[in-house]
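Crash report, auto-generated. Payload:
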Amino acid sequence: MPKRIRRDGQLQFDRSAQEMANYPDLKLYVAAEWRQAAGQPVINPADESVLGTVPHATRADLDDALAAAEQGFRVWSRTSPAKRAEVILEAVRLMRGRVEDMAIAMTLEQGKPIAQSRLEILRGCEIIEWDAQEGRRIYGRIIPSEPGMRHSVLRQPIGVVAAFSPWNFPMSSPARKVGGALSAGCSIVLKASEETPAGAVQLVQAFVDAGLPPGGVESGVRQAFGNLRVSDPAAVGAAGDVHRVGSRWKASVGDGWRAHEAGHHGAWRTRTGDHVQ
Amino acid sequence: MKPVIMELGGHAPVIMCNDIDPVSSAGTSAVAKSRNAGQVCVSPTRFFVEDAIYTQFAEAFAQKARTITVGNGLDPDNQMGPLANERRLAAMETLVADAKAKGARVTAGGERIGNHGYYFPLTVLADVPDDARAMREEPFGPLALLSRVRNIDEAIEKANSVPYGLAAYAFTNSARNVDRLAEGVEVGNLSINHFVASSAETPFGGVKDSGFGREGGTEGLQCYTVVKNVSHLTA
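Recovered output after restart:
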């Protein structure tokens, strides 16, 4: 059993092989396949050991991910809300069965106590469940007007979403974005934190296992996972082609985004703080 | 043009009114602050405590903070793990040193634990002056900043004095206070008498420099949709 670190700083903890085995292989999920790539080490903050290597997506990976997500959007947005909910809820069911493995990986890479890791995963599951159920009730409305004139207000999925998630909540933050986007009928390209990527890898795996995409779209993905560096212009450039950006990043990442914004669109401003977290 | 949802930093104020039990509220506060070692956008950080209960609250907070066990998160006995990276460790040390130099008292924690792994204890700073850097910069770590205020109006004014507006908390049993807080505190999420800032079914997000758009709730899903009006002449 693990031992506690003492207040005098003496490290008494022995990490078992079993716990290490809980840390997943880190790969990119692009166009319905898991890809390897060179990247950077992931550090365990409890003892500064290396847990694995997080791959950095190349421009080609991102182009493939975006193309696949666009194809996925065409299929997923035309899938009935009931069927969408069924697939999403199946992914949640799988994750609920994997809580312990996911929690250990989270504590290894992020540091939080194991009980908090378990709670975060369950909370992430609850968020996705709520979104999946609400996805069946994205109602429009009919507006009364002159006789012979009918106004119908439709709410349609916005398109391919680019999402960026931070290192402090490795699973529940991606869950917010993936749950919301998929439930509304969007496809999504997710970029998790380089420092705590396992939660997103496991989340994507659950959706793959749940049948997203279903057999009818072998060539498409609705979830393309890019563990890319946002400071890399290639990464940011690809994200610029998507329709909605869900973000929850800290200043270092926001700075990269500002550079992109200046070069391309200028449609909106980030207002991140000045300090790097 | 791309629509965007941004959930950015916060610097959550906690307003403690003088009609509450300072000891139990301080205990709840210390545990809430320790969650994820304070590395939470909605972590309670600036505690504005009314004069009549300040001393008791500050003592109870420090006492509870000293009982929070810190160590490897895989050990179920530990209530707080390491900070997630080395940068946070340096930030805590800098912010604590600055606050001390400006007159704050360290009543719990304050120094790194050991030199292997990024361990930093739950740290309580009492009598933190308004010009301490930590009062304006989001610590994003296990720092609780305690400040004495004369009344709820001063507390609300100080709560709103930073560019952030994500989450805020308040503890009171007075409906009149709740009304003033709900009207006056500039945030996206205000929680009264508890420390849960967001849930699956409620809209979560910030105002001012804390971002825009919402995640969660019906608002969250609507952020992933576009509205189209179809006008149809039928006659």
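Post-recovery validation: The longest strand of chain B covers residues 225-233.
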